[in-house]
Design a protein that fits this description.
Elements: H1 6-11, H2 16-28, H3 33-43, H4 49-61, E1 65-68, E2 76-79, H5 83-98, H6 103-111, H7 118-137
Antiparallel strand pairs: 1-2
Helix pairs in contact: 2-3, 2-4, 3-4
């Protein structure tokens, strides 16, 4: 089996099941595979333990998870990528792939979403204002 370079693996996309398992790891923080299995099966359509362990192994292979030594039987897992970093990278990939790399189109899609309310728009405007101010200081 050929191991991928870390940057290449992290730049890759996750399957929907891998994303769901990563969401559990991000929520739990450092955790055992048994904790991931229990949490996943309590909050999703239950899957076989072996299926979730295979997904965890795939996530380790893709360098999204790393084992943490422990005095417990086995080891614990820790995410190597934060949820926010993964979301930002995924949004950049989607922007490049679907919107010709133009972030204005991505922002337009998000702002025009019916689920966005006035409070969200005000928060976005505050972020824009802060970014402009920061840009002017350089």
């Amino acid at each position: 089996m050929v191991r991928r370079k870390k940057d290449e693996a992290q730049a890759g996309e996750l399957t929907p099941l891998e994303e769901a398992v990563m969401a559990v790891v991000w929520q739990l923080g450092e955790c055992s595979s048994a904790e991931v299995i229990a949490h996943y099966n309590n909050h999703h359509e239950p899957l076989a333990k072996t299926t979730i362990r295979t997904v965890l192994a795939n996530l380790r292979e893709k360098d999204f998870l790393t084992p943490v030594p422990t005095t417990e039987r086995g080891f614990r897992l820790r995410a190597t990528v934060t949820r926010n970093d993964f979301a930002a990278r995924t949004l950049r990939q989607i922007t490049r792939r679907l919107l010709n790399g133009n972030p204005r189109h991505a922002i337009t899609c998000l702002i025009n979403d019916d689920d966005i309310d006035d409070a969200d728009l005000e928060a976005i405007q505050a972020l824009i204002d802060a970014r402009k101010k920061k840009g002017g200081e350089s």
